[in-house]
Design brief:
Strand order of the largest sheet: 3-2-1-4-5-6-10-11-12
Radius of gyration: 21 Å
Number of strands: 12
Largest sheet: 9 strands, mixed
Strand content: 15-25%
Number of helices: 16
Order of helices and strands: EHEHEHEHHEHEHEEHHEHHHEEEHHHH
Structural class: alpha/beta
Length: 430
């Protein structure tokens, strides 16, 4: 791809996600002069985000052509890359996804990407994502979709199984795992070279090395971990000791996959107060950029931990970018996981596209953990696409986090009613 690309960002009105994309756009100088289109159904929010980007653009003389719209069909024609991060009433519905299963006796710890809450999270987001994909198929069929929408594995699975859109999913959680391991080792995260494979939020560090010397750091990690503060990341360290590899996600997200996670960590759920505080602080930064009270300095033009613009740079400029964690169809990358699964692996991105690094096999116990979740994902996706209540119930009944048939049926009825306005595939008839 020789010319500067057109990049459409859907969900750009979100303060945290939108500012991350702005930071990455301006820290990637190879892409200056490209076209950026901000899209969101919240017009004031997306207009403010575009205005902030335009101020930075003028200050840096970056040459981006920046616009915004609330209608994605106006933005998509001619797009080379489409970035998506969407959610349906994120906080209120996530709270319901968490508290209603707990009311029925489900001892889960987060309720976002696995467990019963994730079934409904999946089914809410699928119609919107597939709608975006239908528009991409019609308006920019050669574009690459870069998805941040959760539940990542399930959304990517729906895209690959039910559309012709080229897509990759991204998640920054591997950086949390690297931080945790660096803490245990007493090293700087920047000094570690980590390769990890698995499925989103259930990904495992197969190789940990000193970036400078190439030394295998797993022997040192096993020694250091034994004597470290026992309250630190208890679940991650428990599964490390018993399954042999260190997970990447940190206890909160990792805990979604283990029915016994509540024995080692809190069950109060996501810290919504912290999230809201962070969102308000980010919104104030955006307001400051717009009104000129926030200076355009390195804080605003340093990259975030997201990798969308690294992918765009790699494909546009043929720069061989290593992306530590990307969600792609398996296609033999991990031989003992299903071929049609979405796996999270390192990839190299260049002018030849996105090419995964092949591992071979995961240890048997870890492969078993991942395979169990893949089958639940497949049921939840099929239910969300087809509007099939029985498949949704099957997704609950096969989920390791659901130990009671009665609880599964009761929480299903209650969450279906709560989600009625957001699940047209189940309630609207032709």
């Amino acid at each position: 791809m020789g010319q500067k690309p057109k990049i459409v960002i859907i969900g750009a009105g979100s303060a945290i996600f939108g500012l991350s994309m702005i930071k990455d756009a301006f820290s990637t100088k190879e892409l200056w002069g490209s076209e950026l289109v901000f899209v969101d159904i919240d017009r004031p929010a997306v207009e403010k985000m575009a205005t902030a980007a335009q101020r930075i653009n003028r200050h840096l003389n970056a040459g981006y052509a920046i616009s915004f719209t609330t209608d994605r069909t106006e933005a998509l024609p001619g797009a080379d890359f489409v970035i998506t991060s969407i959610a349906v009433d994120r906080v209120p519905l996530w709270k319901q996804d968490f508290h209603i299963p707990k009311k029925h006796g489900i001892q889960h710890v987060l309720g976002e990407n696995a467990g019963p809450g994730a079934v409904f999270h999946t089914m809410r987001n699928i119609p919107i994502i597939l709608g975006i994909c239908r528009d991409i198929e019609q308006l920019c069929p050669d574009a690459l979709l870069i998805n941040f929408t959760n539940p990542e594995s399930r959304i990517c699975l729906a895209i690959h199984q039910y559309t012709n859109v080229k897509a990759v999913g991204l998640c920054h959680q591997i950086h949390e795992g690297i931080r945790i391991v660096a803490t245990l080792l007493g090293k700087n995260p920047q000094d570690l070279d980590v390769k990890a494979w698995g499925i989103n939020h259930l990904t495992w560090m197969v190789d940990i090395r000193d970036k400078e010397t190439g030394e295998d750091l797993y022997p040192l990690l096993r020694e250091k971990e034994k004597d470290y503060d026992p309250a630190f990341e208890k679940l991650s360290r428990f599964v490390f000791r018993h399954f042999g590899l260190f997970p990447t996600s940190g206890d909160d997200h990792l805990g979604e996959f283990f029915p016994y996670a509540h024995e080692m960590m809190g069950t109060e759920g996501y810290d919504f107060a912290h999230y809201e505080s962070r969102r308000r602080n980010t919104a104030q930064v955006i307001d400051g950029i717009v009104n000129g009270t926030v200076p355009i300095d390195n804080r605003l033009i340093s990259p975030s931990v997201e990798a969308a613009f690294d992918i765009i740079k790699g494909m546009t400029c043929n720069t061989n970018e290593l992306i530590l964690s990307a969600n792609v169809p398996n296609q033999g990358y991990i031989r003992n996981l299903p071929e049609d699964a979405i796996v999270e692996i390192p990839v190299i991105v260049s002018g030849n596209g996105i090419n995964g690094l092949s591992l071979g096999e995961l240890p048997q116990g870890i492969a078993s953990l991942c395979s169990a979740q893949i089958h639940v994902q497949q049921l939840a996706v099929a239910a969300g696409v087809e509007g099939d209540k029985n498949l949704a119930i099957q997704a609950l009944l096969t989920d390791p986090n659901v130990p009671s048939a009665k609880a599964a049926l009761n929480l299903f009825d209650e969450l279906m009613e709560v989600n009625r306005p957001y699940l047209p595939q189940f309630f609207e008839t032709a």
